[in-house]
Amino acid sequence: MSTPQPTPVTHLLYLHGFRSSPQSAKARILAQHMASHQPDVHWWCPQLPPSPREAMALLLQSSADWPRESMAVVGSSLGGFYATWVAEQTGCKAVLLNPAVNPARDLEKYIGEQTCWQDPQERFFFQPEFVQELRDLACASLTRPERYLAVIAKGDELLDWRESHARYAGAQLRLLEGSDHGITDFDQQLPAVMAFLGLN
Predict the structure, then answer these.
(1) Is the pLDDT of residue 6 over 80?
(2) CB atoms within 10 A of CB 160
(3) Rounded distance between C-alpha atoms, residue 196 and residue 200, angstroms
(4) How far, in Å, are 49, 62, 82, 83, 106 from residue 55 at the CA level?
(5) What pLDDT is recorded for position 2?
């Protein structure tokens, strides 16, 4: 008996990390790839508001009419934490790139005015209440770990790869021996990401 083929992804959401934007290197690489190779897939990479609660409300509201069985989400760093929440809410597939595991703890020291990596002129305030909003979004254990692919770099200079590795132990794991937090060799990881999403 042949294994049924997974439903091809028709809608793809990309979530950037803290102090990042849709202009990040990975977001641009993926956007270009989708435009060139998967033009029929609905691609959305929003600028996320600083408030985690508002960010998740925006995502759920804007993707409310997306087909749950054929949507997927890719998230980097804090976006990986958000992507986990979205996947648990919707049941969709998720690809996590150096995902943050405990951002409430890690981002507490960033309360105050921040700048965007891609445009230092762009400023925003990370409010104290955002830490609690992050706590509220924390998911317990993954309901269906097989829906997840986690790409984790041992060379990540910002997050402890062991923590991400333990958090997503039941998922499909792609452990990079070197690389860095930004996964600057992301173009080399694209084939595995696309294969997982059924978009190769």
Answers:
(1) no
(2) 12
(3) 8
(4) 5, 11, 9, 11, 18
(5) 43
